[in-house]
């Protein structure tokens, strides 16, 4: 089933523009978290502590520290269709990302392409252009903010690679992430 609102009717906004102080209300936070876990590659957790750690690593830091670079795609009725969690800071030089050691492996590339993000869209809204609209809005924000470049890191062979390439990203490097036992691909796009 597809979402009734095409991308032309979806509204892309920054979290700080719809949530006082960049802190989402309970309903919005629940919607973001629901989409986060629905889209996550990890679906099974051995404990609530493991689930909370996963959320903290991949979502909470963006909500708490980067609300100005967190974008939402909302239907005309205000329902969440997707989000982009972004940051302008070079993650290889930012202590907040020190738990993700692969950023150090890509440190030279992160210096050239410091802004980074991940994007999630409801299954029913995929293929509607909402993901692309979120990435384009983030890219425009990065250009206005003076970011030299933007990157995304994904697993080698991941299906989302085609999406990022369609958004103008090119593979710039690969590295093995020992902690997860998989090869990662660094995709970059020049900034403004």
What does it look like?
The protein is an alpha+beta fold. The chain has a single domain (7-190), classed as 3-Layer(aba) Sandwich (Aminopeptidase), CATH 3.40.630.30. The chain is 36% helix and 25% strand. It contains 7 helices and 7 strands. Strands 1-2-3-4-5-7-6 form a 7-stranded mixed sheet, with helices on both faces. Helix 6 links the parallel strand 4 and strand 5. The radius of gyration is 16 Å and the shape is globular. It starts with 10 loop residues before the first strand and ends with a strand. The model is unreliable at 1-5 (pLDDT under 50).
Short description:
It is built from 7 helices and 7 strands.
CATH level-two architecture: 3-Layer(aba) Sandwich
How many DSSP helices?
Answer: 7
The overall pLDDT, averaged over residues, is 92
Would you count the extended β strands for me? 7
Given helix and strand content, the structural type is alpha+beta
β-strand percent reads: 25-35%
CATH homologous superfamily descriptor:
Gcn5-related N-acetyltransferase (GNAT)
CATH class: Alpha Beta
Spatial order of the strands forming the largest sheet: 1-2-3-4-5-7-6
Series of secondary-structure elements, N-terminal to C-terminal: EHHHEEHHEHEHEE
Biggest sheet layout: 7 strands, mixed
Which value, in Å, is the CA radius of gyration? 16 Å
> What is the molecular shape?
globular
